[in-house]
Amino acid sequence: MSTRPLLDKLGVKPGSRVAIVDLDDPGFLALLRERTSDIVQGRPRKPCDVVFMGARELRDLKRLKDVKSWIEPNGAIWVVRPKGGRSEIRDTDVIEAALAAGLVDNKIASFSDTRGAMRLVFRLRDRPK
Asked: Is residue 71 in some structural domain?
């Protein structure tokens, strides 16, 4: 079990531009506000460094094609979903949806006791200029 603070594990740096979509977690939002004031709930007006996207059902993953336009070329989307048997979504489902959206997974983290998160990014060769 990692002892690193959650926001460090998730790569949220001071001043990061962050968007949150379909993730109702007041405690996490309070934690984010300690690190950055640039937080948007829903679609941002300009590209973000990090997007936290909640997913409870397989159909939620279809949103990735749209959400990828919300991130900077070197940004990331964290798909936050229930852990283990609590979810109909498996890691392989997130990986397949990411590939279909033109993204790849490159990290998994424990978001909380009940939720896990997978980081999705543009492949280096596919990053927008």
From this structure: yes
